[in-house]
Amino acid sequence: MSFEEINFHFSPAYRLKNKYGDEALVSLYGAQVLSWIPRKTQKESLFLSPLAQFEAGKAIRGGIPVCFPQFGSLGNLPAHGFARNRFWKFHKIEETSEHITLSLILSDDVETRALWPYTFEAVISVTLELGTLKTQLSVRNADQKPFSFTCALHTYFNIDDVNSVQISGLEECSFIDQVDQGKKKEASWNKLKINTEIDRIYENGSKPIVLQTEAYKLVIASEGFTDSVLWNPWIDKSCNLKDFPDDGYRSMVCIESGVITLPIKIQPKEQWVAVQILSIE
Ligand code: BG6
Fold it and tell me: Read out DSSP for 89-104?
């Protein structure tokens, strides 16, 4: 097991390694996981854009951005909320013989309260186990009034070739099609191939999703996250994203675990917790 603080571009970051040799890198900026290399595949599982901007105030394109307290533009806050654009604080590190867990914390301050007038504590805990990466988000209401929020762990998977991946687990779910005016659409009943721009919010109630690549199978499970988002910008949108290569759409797909369609409401002193579990098989 090892745990090391390094400087990664403009922010401190933490390199985690478990006794099996699985490794992860987590930035203090955004509490964003930027790398996960399981020993089993010895390959980077998360996509980090080679043109990602490492600059305070901007979101890092890749890894696992934390969208909180708003998903996308479903509200008045900046896109995907403010958590991905802020420096979190080191909270704790826990090690057992089997795993290592790093926790980072974000609390309200003058700037967050100007955007979102609540006192809160959000904690991201990243656990590295054999072939498994768990990312837990917990949110505690430290205010005297209830608040509501939406959120997601916006996971960018690194793939060799978008044409050869297949996604299953979502075929029975209806979805909101964000590339077709937010229309609600019925389940397709087919395993998914990505061959065009895709931006869908599935109400899938936390069923596991399988991403089958040529090299390995990755299972995305979750507890507490009730929706899943599937996103690939495809050709035109890739060309319009300045922190993303024109052909970047070939090497990534986002499968995000979130709570989007029915916001979470928590009362004073209450805490809400959800976890995304990625496993290589
Ligand atoms: C996805 C959204 O979660 O994130 C898409 O469903 C959005 O609509 C994408 O384009 C990327 O968002 P951003 O703000 O990181 O460019």
Answer: EEEEEEE-SS-EEEEE
